[in-house]
Amino acid sequence: MTIQTPEEYLAEFIMYDSVKRYLRHLKKKSVKMERGSVPFDTLEHLKYALRHYTSFTGKNPDELIEAATSSIRRLGTTLEIDDELDSFWEATPTKTTAAVFFSFLKSFYRFNGVRLSAATPGTPKVRKNLIHLNNDMVRRICDVMPLQHASWFLSNNYMGLRLGGFRNLVVEDFHIENFEKNMPLYPVFVSKMVGGFFDYTSYIGYDAMMKLKTYIAREGFLKNDKLWDFNDNYLIKKFKAFAYQAGVIEASKGFGQQGEPLGMCMLGTHAQRRRRNTVQESVGTNRNWCDHLIGHVPKGANAKSYSFPEDATPEDLYNEVLKALPKLEIYGHHELSPTEPTVQLQRVRILEEAKVMKNMTPEKLQQLENILKCIRTKPEMDGALENIMVVTKHTQAGD
Asked: Residue 29: is its pLDDT beyond 60?
């Protein structure tokens, strides 16, 4: 598999000495933080910041540094460049994006010898009461998506990558030779370029594999082809548009060009990532291992500075994902998907009580067992209790 280097990713600007100098700084910073390579998100923000700012000023990166140096010599201050950067922020419609660009541009100037005094604008606070995706919401959103989008959305339900992170995944990463096997989980290779911090193995469930298999066959992808080479902004807009179609969010101020609802949106672009981490924590997985399974550097108690949990084998991590599988499956349960321990105990208790009931026939017992066999999680058990009561009530009544 061919992975783009930072130089290749920044090809439109890498010929400028100022960009080469700044990239060297980013590489040193990445090594210091033990990431091993410049995170994809950083390269993405840098590229878009330079693209928008050079278009705004009409100067290439080297000319920006030359103009700033000349201005400081002439005026004795950075005021002229500060004003230009402030004007750029004011002219950029999306202030959150503008603030991110502003920060990268100040850093770009600083590591080219120009220290600006303009204050970096604040970004909006993280909103409270954000929507937390559940299985029903994921299913509804996936149901309204065409195959090319449903395939990444259902896959990312298991992987929990950043919304734009999976854009560099290629067919080979999914080890499609395993797709012919009957497995509860299918391994996926996530590289540093995709995950941002380190290479690791993620997994997708059987339902996601089947949808992905259909998508690959329909499009005729080869092993090095990217599956979802979407533009970041397009992807975010479509994510919200499909969530609106599924009735998960509302539109308060009309719609954009991609059909996305405008105005405040309580469904964040990290919703799948938060859901994946929350589900893994809910089955008792070690906090550092939860971080590793979504590509985070461990941040839990006694976290190490390196990324792979030293006391975990690949089999250990696989088993942790398997524990979370019943809560992650969207379209039915795979036959090898485990049952939550409390649900398994409840299954046994219900069957034992049913066996001694008056007039419990083998047919009625088999009916009850079939109902219980499909149940993997506590919410499902709670929802099925009414059907169970119908079976047992009729038996006790002698029907």
From this structure: yes
274 with 132: CB under 8 angstroms?
A: yes
Q: Is the model more confident about 70 or about 28?
A: 70
Rounded Cα distance, 172 and 210, in Å: 16
Q: Is 196 left (phi over 0), alpha (psi -120 to 50) or beta?
A: left
d(CA 277, CA 282): 9
Would you say 65 and 114 are in contact if contact means Cβ atoms under 8 Å apart? yes
Give buried/exposed letters for 378-398 (b at 16+ CB in 10 A, else e): eebbeeeeeebeebbeebeee
Assigned token pair, 304: 């190490």
Task: Give dist(CA 72, CA 70) in Å, integer.
Answer: 6
For residue range 331-380, list pLDDT tens digits in order. 988 888 888 777 777 778 887 887 878 777 888 888 887 877 777 777 77
Own/partner pairs, 131-136, CB within 8 angstroms, 24+ separation: 131/248, 131/249, 131/266, 131/267, 131/268, 131/271, 132/271, 132/274, 132/275, 132/278, 133/248, 133/267, 133/271, 133/272, 133/274, 133/275, 134/275, 135/327, 135/329, 135/330
Name 287's Cβ contacts closer than 8 Å, sequence gap at least 6: 281, 298, 299, 300, 301, 303
Reported as a single tens digit per residue, the pLDDT across 92-145 is 777 777 888 888 999 999 999 999 888 888 765 555 568 889 999 999 999 999
Angle separating helix axes 95-110 and 17-32, nearest 10 degrees: 100
Do the Cβ atoms of 236 and 163 come closer than 8 Å?
Answer: yes
pLDDT digits (tens, 9 = 90+) for 57-87: 999 999 999 999 999 998 888 888 988 888 8
